[in-house]
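Why do we care about 3D structure at all? Because function follows from shape, and shape follows, mostly, from sequence. That is the central idea of this module. The next example makes it concrete: a single protein chain, its amino acid sequence, and then its structure expressed as tokens.
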Amino acid sequence: FSEFKGAFAENYVLQALMPQLDVAPRYWTNERPRHEVDYLIQLANTVVPCEVKAGTNVKSPSLKYYFGKYADATPLRVRFSLRNLSLDGDVLNIPLYLCDIAAKLIGENLPSASRTTGVANGKAD
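And the structure:
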């Protein structure tokens, strides 16, 4: 099981995100140096990078690299993991069990300049 738990967690998060979003999540990769972000999701006019971690070890050099490359366009980063709900600077940690309300949580934590009156079909209002 341990070799598949990351894939299971990513699939679980994707299945929870799909009904909440107007635009399907995308995958991002960089060849050199090699980095990948599990999901880029669009809420209103903002693209939010998301990483999924199946455990409590939440180190994510790829999310950090993405932010370094696109900091001006990245007001918030999201990490799904087994850790508690928290906002640490511009990183929002969402526990896996709250994936079903992720769009709402992300929308509430976007800087006010990034928000609009509706998020993802109004589902996050």
